[in-house]
Fold this sequence. Notes:
The structure holds two protein chains of two kinds.
Chain A: H1 8-13, H2 33-46, H3 76-89, H4 103-114, H5 117-138, H6 147-159, H7 165-183, H8 186-192, E1 202-207
Helix pairs in contact in A: 3-7, 4-7, 5-7
Chain B: H1 2-11, E1 13-19, H2 23-34, E2 39-42, H3 72-77, H4 79-82, E3 104-105, H5 133-136, H6 138-142, H7 152-166, E4 168-169, E5 183-184, H8 191-203, E6 210-211, H9 222-226, H10 250-260, E7 264-267, E8 270-278, E9 283-291, E10 297-307, H11 311-319, E11 339-342, E12 344-345, E13 349-354, E14 360-364, E15 371-373, E16 390-401, H12 409-416, E17 419-432, E18 440-448, E19 454-459, H13 464-483, E20 487-492, E21 505-507, E22 524-525, E23 528-533, H14 548-567
Parallel strand pairs in B: 1-2, 1-10, 2-7, 3-19, 4-5, 10-23
Antiparallel strand pairs in B: 6-15, 8-9, 9-10, 11-21, 12-17, 13-17, 13-20, 15-16, 16-17, 18-19, 22-23
Helix pairs in contact in B: 2-10, 2-14, 7-14
Amino acid sequence: MVFCDFDPQLMRLNFFRQSFIENSKLGGLNSKESQMERRLFIKQVLIMGGGIAMLPSCMRDSGKSSIALDNLDVSLEQEKLLAEVSETIIPATDTPGAKELNLHLFVLKMLDDLYEKEDQKLFMKGLGDFADSAKDKYSKSFQELAVPQKQEFLLAIEQDKQAPPAIAKFYEIMKGRTIGGYLNSKYVMTNLIKWELVPGRYNGYFPVKAA
Amino acid sequence: MSNINTDNKKANTYDVIVIGSGISGGWAAKEFTEKGLKTLVLERGRDVQHIRDYPTTNKYPYEFEHRGEPALAIQKENPIASRCYIFREDAMHFVVKDNEHPYVQEKPFDWIRGYQVGGKSLLWARQTQRWSDFDFEGPARDGFAVDWPIRYKDIAPWYSHVEKFAGISGNKDGLAELPDGEFLPGFPLNAVEDYFKGFVKSKYPNRHVISARCAHLSKPNQIHLDQGRAKCQNRILCQRGCPFGGYFSSNASTLPWAAKTGNLTLRPFSVVESVIYDDKQGKATGVRVIDANTKQEMEFYAKIIFVNAAAINTNLILLNSKSSRFPNGLGNDSGYLGKFVAFHNYSARISAEYDGLKQFGTDGRNPAGGGYIPRFRNVFKQETDFKRGYAAGFSAYRSSNRDTSGVGEKLKNNILNPELGPWRVGSHMMGETIPKESNYVSLNGNKKDNWGIPLLNISVDYDENDRLMKKDYIAEMSQMFDEAGFKNIEVNDKSQAPGLDIHEMGGVRMGNDPKTSILNKWNQVHACPNVFVTDGACMTSTSCQNPSLTYMALTARAVDYAVKSLNRYEV
């Protein structure tokens, strides 16, 4: 954490900002050039609010992820699994859950653009190991499990201090970014915890219930 | 042919040229145009018009592609810019990218720049404190640099002049070491900031926690409404540019004001290569400009030239302005041009928790950022083993505990309904550094930029005085925190390179003696009286106040003098 000049508010907002800066060169991209160009084009025409470019089915390889990714190679099957994991973390109740808010796609978007190659690899390996491990344990795929079993399986990873590094990294990124994406989603920011663009006030003695 | 050249020369001739449109250049433009002088403002970057060119100003957090975090590839391409808190998705378009404008770091120096109309005035932290004679008399009293050629009484009316127009919020605190100004109502401290203020006052009579004074319109006067600006709306999204004009910037204030006079010509994409000195006439006649896009060279002429290119670039331009009269850079008879560069030491911060006053939180946002602790060390007498001292920020906020353990409905409920936690308090140091000949900038003999201008070598570092001062800040502030009942005190003294404070100063310092300084008491180059420097480059010493207000006041004062001299045919 470094900081410049005097702006405590901003410094605070950025307090948890992670530093990814290293001198190492950015590794080569794993997509083919033509695919890159096509995706770039699609990105330019199809950026949704929140910056995730959705690919219509007619323009994507069958079996591929539904969003434009520069670095990751994610199958539709994997994407569906991620949706189930995110939905288990933040389920639909009387308000929308992770799947409806496309938080699994948000996680992929962040993983694709903000993480080192090693972390991306670890995440993808962790995703595979996660699926295998669920099958080993329940003789069913994670998607097929009942909600309590899904929760139990995730909690076991969360609480296992000796979890294998790939699964641990997968879970850490998946959970952290799902929560972050949720709290920063349009739905939450406009309906549940309202973020004000123009507060127009400051009260330094705002009465609250003493905790 | 000669006629065409004459016409061309005439078309490119103004009364005044101002190099740079940032916080001081904007003021030069306003003052000159108001006094009826045809003024050309040259800006090396693109145009940024108030409101129209603030593309992110009304965006919600979820409208940013990565919710604010710059993509990893961008961070890797910009290790320097990425270290600045401004370099986020909402404002990174206002920050110079590393590879566009390289420089040579003889020692690590994070040079944060804003190349656009308005410069860094769009991005600044808006803290505005006056200097006092405890600051102006510092070098003479404590034996470093050279004596400032001015005292508080010389600049006080100009502080008032710029404060009234810019709009400065603050309280009349009655402190000799931090003179009161022309204030709009101050922003209030919160419950814990007030508590600490009261505690410090009772225990340390010479130490004060005040509401930070800042360039925000807490309650606009007519002069601010006349500028098209409105009351600050507590958004704290300032670095995006403010659609209300709630804080002071060249873009919202001085430049449109200057434009209204009809005397302003603003030319973006104009990289100034050098100031032209005419040996026969014995004065500067204009500036050589390279168009940033076409790379076409051109010249502009004027009777008076103000160099406000931002501290380090002002040094670069003068060093690169070579003539037979000034082979080592314009005005550089002393050999001191580019030397005695200094900055502010921002390399320590302290945070803690406070368990009391839990009946309060805060609501809305405070544009002032909280409290300010004026320098209390070595003010009235020398009392430590280091020279000078530091100011400190102090702010508090009510934390919330978001329980993110587990999964499912319980987790969802927990993160949507965080429990209030203790108050969190924080402070950071703003230390004066001593200008030294060994802290310098110079022209690189080999490397040039895309416009054929030599790159700058920057060689600036901390010294033993800085280390001792930092140790003292940590000890004193920790003790005050402890005595105030703050718990879990954490010190972060991870060093940061000079430059990241964005308070680089000096290199073209003011002084009485032409043998040891470049500028006189009117910010006028001793040896070339129609060239003035009124940005951070002119600073003889740095004290520890945020410097922009002083640049504004020095600029308005210098313009007044320049115009009077012009009327007396002295320049």
